[in-house]
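Lab notes, practical 5.
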Amino acid sequence: MSMIFRRVLAFLVRLVVFLIGAVFAVGLLLLGFVLTLTLVAWALLRGRRPQVRRFKVDPRQPFGGFRPRGAAVDPANVVDVEAREVPSAPPRLDRS
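Output from the prediction step:
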């Protein structure tokens, strides 16, 4: 009788641990889904289009071969400025 009791108890413990893990996993999945929807809604409310980042991976390269997508700014829109010397600032009060 004690052998059957131990088997049933072990099965119930495994079942409870599995159910707790399943509930935790589903909760994390729902949290990620809600967070994603919240961020998309926030972007749309501010009048911005949600940005999707895509990575190109080349399996023949080491570490997946991540490559940059190109220049972030159009070179025609870059403004050059002249550098000038900044005079030294007057000494500050020590507030220690």
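Observations recorded by the TA: The chain has a mean pLDDT of 83. The chain has one domain: 2-69.
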